[in-house]
Specification:
Elements: E1 4-11, E2 15-18, H1 19-26, H2 33-36, E3 40-43, H3 50-62, H4 67-71, E4 73-79, H5 90-98, E5 105-109, H6 115-129, E6 136-143, E7 161-168, E8 174-185, E9 191-195, E10 198-201, H7 203-224, E11 236-239, H8 244-258, H9 263-274, H10 281-284, H11 291-301, E12 315-323, E13 327-335, H12 337-344, H13 348-353, E14 356-357, H14 360-370, E15 379-381, H15 388-393, E16 400-407, E17 410-416
Parallel strand pairs: 2-14, 4-5, 4-6, 11-12
Antiparallel strand pairs: 1-7, 1-8, 2-3, 6-7, 8-13, 9-10, 12-13, 15-16, 16-17
Length: 419
């Protein structure tokens, strides 16, 4: 039985800041900007939170389902580092505003930037098992950024938004190679969110954990998939992207370890097999557990751009997902012209181009409210109209869900209507 991703979309907010503007505003060393390989990063607005990001990513997918198909969404899983409550899941709000059936299982999962892949694999296994023929599962990775000047060089790399992944029996976007995966996990504190208002990170520890897990994940993949070869099995690669420069270093490491390729050949291989996956991450920043799926979107929308297989060719993609703490997975699947056509309907390039470009002063002015996004205030009112100046500069072509505050700890939302 085939199982995999039937539909895929990302929502990366209404605003962005050029990375150079952020470097200059913070007085960071511009010589280090090239290491990030980033152009822009998405910036959440005070009325955007994990719920609005998730719903706004998933609405274009759900709206394309007919009533019978919507009724077959039997599982909704949100993965997030940005939980709103120690008990109630983000998924409960998302379920309500997407209008999914009451018979749907609703749950939230957490393992830093890996959790969405764990949820996708569980959803694929559920669909492939055949216990409920025709069933679908919706996995949504959704997060906000809690960074300011304390994050130093991590601040320009940290994005915000959500990736929505619909799993089913007709894998029009990614036909997952069932049983082809490799895992590696152990306990380490390379990054964490110990409170709802700030993150901590050990950049060196995180770098080494990411690279160590990648090597060991692929070793485990090879032990399960006879004849798997890093250089020849995969036409393309899409990886968790804390920043694009990290992915380039990871690719270079695996080429050295598993192929012995000369540096010039490794550079050509990176351009052909990996670079197409970095166009969107370089314009958004780290999307946490949605990061690898943002990279997959980028790859599919840029199939063949750098000399790789064209959309008419069926191509195998190797995917790597890493989450601090840590857990990781390398898996694979097939893409083709249907993948490109399905994703084109989401108009992701238009969405990214339509974000309002912030000045550093505007960005800095938003941070105090953004850093309180997850704080459980009993009562709070968010005046969406106060941000009309930014909204007027963003290109918005559909209704969007916005957070209007809390009432007795209960989050309140409204649809922002654009005719």
């Amino acid at each position: 039985m085939s199982a995999g991703i039937e539909a895929l979309n990302v929502y990366c907010g209404l605003a962005q800041i050029p990375v150079r503007s952020l470097f200059e505003g913070r007085g960071l060393d511009l010589d280090r900007m090239g290491n990030l390989m980033m152009r822009n990063r998405s910036v959440g607005l005070p009325f955007e939170d994990p719920v609005t990001n998730a719903v706004n990513a998933a609405v274009p997918i759900v709206d394309r389902l007919d009533p019978a198909e919507r009724d077959r969404v039997e599982i909704l899983i949100t993965s997030t580092e940005s939980g709103l409550d120690y008990s109630k899941s983000v998924a409960s709000y998302v379920h309500e505003y997407l209008g999914l059936p009451r018979s749907c299982r609703v749950v939230e999962v957490k393992q830093a930037c890996y959790a969405a892949t764990a949820a996708v694999q569980m959803a694929v296994a559920y669909v492939a098992s055949g216990v409920s023929p025709g069933a679908k599962a919706l996995v949504i990775a959704t997060d906000v950024a809690l960074v300011d000047e304390r994050a130093q060089y991590a601040e320009p790399a940290t994005g915000a938004g959500a990736a929505a992944v619909l799993v089913g029996e007709d894998p029009r976007v990614l036909d997952v190679d069932l049983g082809a995966f490799g895992n590696h996990s152990y306990e380490t504190l390379d990054s964490a969110r110990p409170s709802p208002s700030f993150d901590i990170a050990d950049s060196d520890r995180s770098l080494f954990a990411y690279l160590d897990c990648l090597t060991n994940c692929f070793e485990d993949y090879r032990s399960r998939v006879e004849g798997a070869d890093f250089a020849t099995t995969f036409d393309y690669l899409a990886m968790h992207t804390p920043f694009a420069g990290m992915v380039k270093a990871a690719h270079r490491k695996l080429m050295r370890e598993f192929t012995g390729t000369a540096p010039a050949e490794a550079e050509e291989d990176f351009t052909r097999r990996v670079l197409p996956s970095l166009a969107y991450p370089s314009a958004v920043g780290n999307l946490c557990s949605g990061s690898v799926y943002l990279a997959l979107c980028s790859l599919i929308d840029h199939l063949g751009d750098a000399g790789g297989p064209q959309p008419d060719d069926r191509a195998r993609v190797g995917l790597y997902s890493y989450g601090s703490g840590c857990s990781s997975e390398f898996f694979s699947g097939l893409v083709d012209r249907r993948s490109a056509e399905e994703l084109a309907a989401m108009r992701i390039p238009d969405h990214l181009a339509g974000r309002c470009a912030l000045t550093f002063e505007e960005y800095a002015g938003l941070l105090p409210a953004n850093l309180r996004c997850l704080v459980p205030d009993q009562d709070r009112r968010i005046d969406v109209e106060a941000y009309e100046g930014i909204l007027d500069r963003a290109r918005i072509d559909r209704d969007l869900l916005v957070n209007t505050g809390t009432k007795d700890y209960h989050r309140t939302y409204e649809w922002l209507s654009y005719e």
